[in-house]
Specification:
eight-stranded mixed β-sheet; 217 residues; single chain
Length: 217
């Protein structure tokens, strides 16, 4: 099936099954926030599909690796207390970690043994990517609290824009196989890129489609 059948759509379905229909080496950049495998429940009782298991991890990132162009990059958020599983799954799929991002938050999203005041993501490479002319810093500020109104772990659009602009070209194709409320797709659209989002939860898929249509933030 041609990649054009998927472009500028938020697709409802299992990302592994959807990506299996996509041609190899067809995506320029992947930016995604997968389940953290921690059985997360927010204050209102909302939960995430497949956040209670790791069975999806290797199959999903094997397909991400396949559809990503040679020399392409993947930005993936992850849960720090499952870092070993994530790194194992990424490396088993063929990815090489080449960078790590930390977003500093001005508020604590959780308090335990520490105050949780940052978000984190790995930068993963397929092959030998060309380094960007203006690489973003690996410590980023200005994280804006979304209120998680649309999704239990909703990320701000502004956090993703510098990475999409640095690691893809205008008109490039950005994939998010765990689209959630559509933040990556919205950021890609604002940055002048094409997008593909895949989301298993029908309610979140509807929200993502509405957001990207309105280009809301």
């Amino acid at each position: 099936m041609s990649i054009h059948n998927f472009v500028n759509r938020i697709i409802w379905g299992d990302c592994v099954r959807v990506m299996k229909q996509m041609p190899s080496v067809s995506v320029d950049l992947v930016v995604t926030d997968p389940p953290y495998m921690v059985s997360y429940t927010d204050r209102s009782g909302r939960r995430l599909i497949n956040d209670d298991n790791s069975r999806w991890l290797k199959p999903a990132f094997a397909e991400v690796y396949r559809v990503l162009k040679r020399g392409g990059l993947c930005v993936s958020f992850y849960g720090w207390n499952q870092a070993e599983k994530f790194l194992g799954g990424w490396k088993a799929s063929g990815f090489t970690p080449v960078g790590h991002f930390v977003w500093v938050k001005r508020y604590a999203s959780k308090t335990g043994f520490t105050e949780a005041r940052h978000e984190q993501a790995y930068l993963l490479a397929k092959g030998q990517p060309v380094k960007p002319r203006h690489p973003p810093p690996d410590v980023l500020y200005g994280w804006r609290y979304t209120g998680n109104r649309l999704h239990p772990t909703q990320k701000p659009v502004g956090a993703l824009l510098p990475l999409i602009r640095a690691y893809s070209q205008p008109g490039g194709l950005v994939l998010d196989p765990f689209a959630g409320s559509g933040t990556t797709a919205v950021a890609a659209k604002i940055a002048g890129r094409r997008y593909i989002g895949i989301e298993m939860d029908w309610g979140h898929c509807r929200v993502a489609n509405r957001r990207v249509k309105e280009r809301g933030v």
